[in-house]
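Appendix C. Worked example: ADP-ribosylation factor-like protein 15
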Amino acid sequence: MSECIQLSFAVCRIGIYTCFRALCCKGPPPPRPEYDLVCIGLTGSGKTSLLSQLCSESPENIVSTTGFSIKAVPFQNAILNVKELGGADNIRKYWSRYYQGSQGVVFVLDSASSEDDLETARNELHSALQHPQLCTLPFLILANHQDKPAARSVQEV
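Step 2, the predicted output written as structure tokens:
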């Protein structure tokens, strides 16, 4: 009987030790790589709405960005740290101060905007494409508001 109890205790110790090693000794999961992006575009183009959707935040109470905001957008294999820069005329002249360290650019434009606003967006996009800190980075150009009746197609933009 005592041999049976000793054998049971030995099996339990081995089981507990195995579980302990499996649960506690793996170490933390490897960190996900982080990428720093800058998100630019004119006021009302949808930058804040885009980032809110990517962060699974409520689309209610979205307020136009004054200055800048930073959001961490988590994905399964990476984290995007996105600096969203306000698109008002008096803020756009300061955009270049926030470009340093960026690894990519998201340019959001309102595809349903007026011809004048679209021309302004084109000029800002060309300026960003030629900027020394951005000219070698990947750009994502997002033609937003495609659901509006006045929206232009990607080819028209």
